[in-house]
Specification:
Phospholipid-binding lipoprotein MlaA; lipoprotein; single chain; MlaA; signal
């Protein structure tokens, strides 16, 4: 009971702080007579831009101070095969959540691949250290989350958010993260056996590994961006739209966006990239709407 009271008090405090920040962090809408400005404001979908920019700067500072150096040491300390095994292992741990969302979205074929990948990599892949399912059986990894599931069910993304530590998001994706956390078997293992450090360690390792793999691409992205915040915002929304449609891997899109022809070194504006829908999921989205 005391634990629940502590959680409740923390939630109330967080809600109070969020209310104050929301009141102070709203962007001023442009003059209705300025059609171009109004269109840009609506397309950005970022009415809380002042608050979001503040948290973006906080997160960027933490990245420069902690995450980026750790990622650099990680790259130096581990050879590529070891980093591949780390990535394969944390992906395998996430497989049950992916399976749930495959099923929620009615994607039987992908759910079958996910279940088979988990069985193969957990056994032949020695607990997921090696992605045998992809190497030997031609079943590549794919990701799903409840934010994507909500989109398939017809939920709108809501306004753009940049959350402390978590980074770019929106109400739909933030809610999805909470559901994924509850669906994750490791959450319950940690709660029942009082070993919540397992999940915390998993998230930390996953974050450092992802940051390490994108050190150069993010640096190039920042160097070539006129407004780094706006670029990240646009990039995140494109990533999510692409993921919802079962398109490219977000890291592949990130690499594509950092090519010289996409983000020139002279700081020209980044062109809009329109993700092409995959028919299967695009049909589901059309039906939901």
């Amino acid at each position: 009971m005391s634990r629940l009271m502590t959680i409740a008090k923390s939630t109330l405090k967080a809600s109070a702080i969020a209310t104050v920040l929301l009141a102070a962090g709203c962007a001023t809408p442009p003059d209705p007579s300025d059609d171009v400005a109004v269109q840009a404001f609506n397309e950005a979908n970022d009415p809380l831009e002042p608050m979001n920019r503040y948290f973006f700067e906080v997160n960027h500072g933490l990245d420069e101070l902690l995450f980026k150096p750790f990622a650099g040491y990680y790259n130096i300390a581990l050879p590529d095969p070891a980093k591949d095994s780390v990535r394969s292992f944390v992906r395998n741990l996430r497989t049950p959540v992916i399976l749930f969302n495959d099923l929620f979205q009615g994607e039987g074929g992908r759910a079958g691949d996910t279940a088979a990948r988990f069985a193969i990599n957990t056994t032949l892949g020695i607990g997921g250290l090696f992605d045998v399912a992809d190497w030997w059986f031609g079943m590549p990894y794919h990701d799903e989350d409840f934010g994507q599931t909500l989109a398939v069910w017809g939920a709108d993304e809501g306004i753009y958010l940049h959350l402390p530590l978590l980074g770019p998001s929106n109400p739909r994706d933030a809610s999805g993260k909470l559901v994924d956390y509850v669906l994750d078997p490791l959450t319950w293992v940690g709660y029942v056996y009082n070993v919540s450090w397992i999940n915390t360690t998993r998230f930390a390792v996953e974050g450092i590994d992802t940051r390490a793999r994108n050190l150069e691409t993010i640096a190039e992205l920042q160097k070539g961006s006129v407004d780094f915040y706006a670029t990240i915002r646009s990039l995140y929304r494109q990533h999510r739209n692409d993921a919802i449609k079962n398109g490219e891997d977000p890291e592949a899109v990130l690499s594509q966006l950092t090519n010289d022809d996409m983000i020139p070194a002279d700081g020209d504006e980044m062109p809009i990239i329109v993700a092409q829908p995959v028919p299967e999921k695009a049909d589901q989205l059309s039906e939901a709407n």
